[in-house]
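Problem 12. The chain below contains 623 residues. Write out its predicted structure in token notation.
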Amino acid sequence: MGKVRSLLVGLLLLCCLAAAAMAEPKEKYKDPNQPIGFRIRDLMKRMTLEEKIGQMTQIDLKAATPEIMKKYSIGSILSGGGSVPKVQATAEEWIEIINGFQHGSLSSRLGIPLIYGIDAVHGNNNIYKATIFPHNIGLGATRDPELVKKIGAATALEVRATGITYAFAPCIAVCRDPRWGRCYESYSEDPEIVQAMTEIIPGLQGDIPANSRKGVPYVGGKDKIAACAKHFVGDGGTIRGINENNTIIDWHGLLSIHMPAYYNSIIKGVATVMVSYSSWNGVKMHENYQLITGFLKNTLKFRGFVISDWQGIDKITSPPGANYTYSVQAGIHAGIDMIMTPFNHSEFIDTLTDLVKKNVIPLSRIDDAVSRILRVKFTMGLFEDPLTDLSVVTHLGAQPHRDLAREAVRKSLVLLKNGENADPPLLPLPKKADKILVAGTHANNLGNQCGGWTITWQGLQGNNLTAGTTIFSAISAAIDPSTELVLHENPDAEFVKSGNFSYAVVVVGEPPYAEGYGDNLNLTIPEPGPSTITNVCTNIKCVVVLISGRPLLIQPYLPFIEALVAAWLPGSEGQGVADVLFGDYGFTGKLPHTWFKTVEQLPMNFGDAHYDPLFPLGFGLTT
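Solution.
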């Protein structure tokens, strides 16, 4: 009897062990209960060289198919500016196509999920009907890191609402010359302000746990996304602000001006860092081993992955792509882990595979890159939750996010002038008046007030690009119903004189632009802006609201402008401008950049020996 009982117990134990074995994933890397380091090692020992290099590859939506994802084990897809499933695609359509790509990845031999990236640089700005927040220059004017953290959290929800898991944000450039076409992507010329604004990273990714090791990436759950500190390093310091050019500065200057925000980003667990197109003292950043591997990885202990910019390695040579094999070798050797190669993945994969097989690139460098990519994917929970369901789509353009954007607009506005010393201030404006004139190219133009990186790379003009409220519409809603409101984009002087207007609001500025297309050596307000200011403000009391990605030449018009407001690129919620113009809220914004008198003074930053600004860094009147 005892033998029978022992046999039964033994059989029961075997059954239990078999059940436990069946419950556990056969492959340890698929077990979420295992430590991440163990999962990485277990997966990597199973990977072929080709699968590893596939993980190092990021391709554009337009080049991707589920079959390509499966065949090459591609690590990532991106949507470049304006790269969309179709014009005005819905959140549901985004999710459908991204889930389709993900199914392709999951059906590959090892089933490694893809990470999908997008330039969500002021909200999920490529997506139709997303909330468009003010660009970074405006957020820098708020001096409010907690607000910026909330914007990061709202952006993460709106990105997730489309099935996307990775944002190429924040840009932590320190713009030292407003002639640069990306100055609006910079929070400030002051590295301390940029450092403070890295609070957007825990907004996007979640608050890093207290016991986390420095440099290890952290992304906390399905309502968060991977962030990307960019562009490493010195992108905001190029000669004359020329995009992708040369930043000439000594080591101390690089560390004290352009590097500090990277320290904060890494401490806060940023998942990725993007390399800059620019050069440092003549060396292209995409081939700078000293800074990418030596400093970022080894000194700062960054453990996430380093990604190239769009065709960034191609631009190591001049002309771009002149020696692609050299570009691949130099970029990978420098320490770049994932290559943004939008449309030529097979060439990149073949080239890098050949370099490894010929021992030009050591396998240890490939393993370093892949382990970093996998660390981010495991940390994000992509292996457990690779697909998106439709329950999240309600976050896109949600009213609480629009309310938050409206608050950000209010806090970003900088009041530069409000009457002369002897005159009473013009602002706040009375809501009840006989007749108000609203003039200017930017008064009733949503595209102009959103700027570049909105729906498309370069942005769009007009009111058909996405959902939002123009400044004119906001004024119309704010004033007393008995007040007559007249909109005229570019009135002549006679129209203004004969109109019996109580006062005027003139909204002018720059058209949308992005990157090098915005480089500008004269920084004048484009016509008909100056004509509109002159025709209106020399004849009636006016407030000028300047919509721009940087300080512009305004000094010649100051004598006949009663009040002047720098509104930057406020985004989709124009009501924030009306809120402050009419006194529902006070002006609190402070200049994030020095406002020059003439372009001949540039570059000119706070602390320079020749510092003689029209308005200094930090200037801002209150009401």
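Discussion. The mean pLDDT is 96. Students who got a different answer should revisit the alignment rule from Section 12.3.
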